[in-house]
Amino acid sequence: MPMSPEAALRPAYPIRTERLTLRPLTPADADDLLGYRSRADVCRYLPFEPMTPEAIAGRLAGDWARVALTDEGQALTLGVADTATGELVGDVVLFWHSRLHGSGEIGYVLRPDVVGRGYATEAATELLRLGFDGLGLHRIVARLDERNEPSARLARRLGMRGEARLVHNEFFKGEWSTELVFALLDVEWRARAG
Q: Can you tell me whether residue 170 is helix, strand or coil?
C-alpha cells in the first residue's frame, strides 16, 4: 500500500540511543567533519571524493541543513556524537526515494579511530527506526561497494538481507565497481523488533 500523502518525518532532537546522540549538523561541526571526510581512506568506497573545507561549508549551508523529511527525493543527514564526551564520531543519512513505493536508503560514515565500537550499528539501527516507525517506509536499502567488507558486515548485523550483486555496474573513482544491495522490509523490521 502506498504511503500516505501526509507522510513526513520531523524528529524531536536530540535523538538519544544507548551511547549516542543523533542531531542535525551545524557549522560548528565543520572541523570535525573535515577530520574524517577529507581522508582518502575514509572516502575510498563512498560516493564522494575527500572533501575540502569549502565543500563541507557548502553542504552545511545546503542539504545538510535539513532537519525533516517532507517529501520524496530528500535526504536527512545527522551527526552522530558520543553522548558521554559530546564528540562527533560520524554521520548518517536517511534518503527518502519514493512515496509511491515507500522506499528509502541508509548510509553511514564514521571516524576511523572509533570503528569497532558498535557505534555504526547503533546509529544505523536508529536510522532504520526513523525510516520505518517514524516515516512509515516499506523498504530500506543499503548500497555499497563489494570491497567494503566492514559495511557489508554492518548491513548483515542490521538484519538486512543481501539482494543483489551488480558486477561492474558503475565506473567509480577510475575503476569498475561491483555493487552490493542489502534490504530490509517493514514487516521484517517489526518482526525483529518484537
A: strand
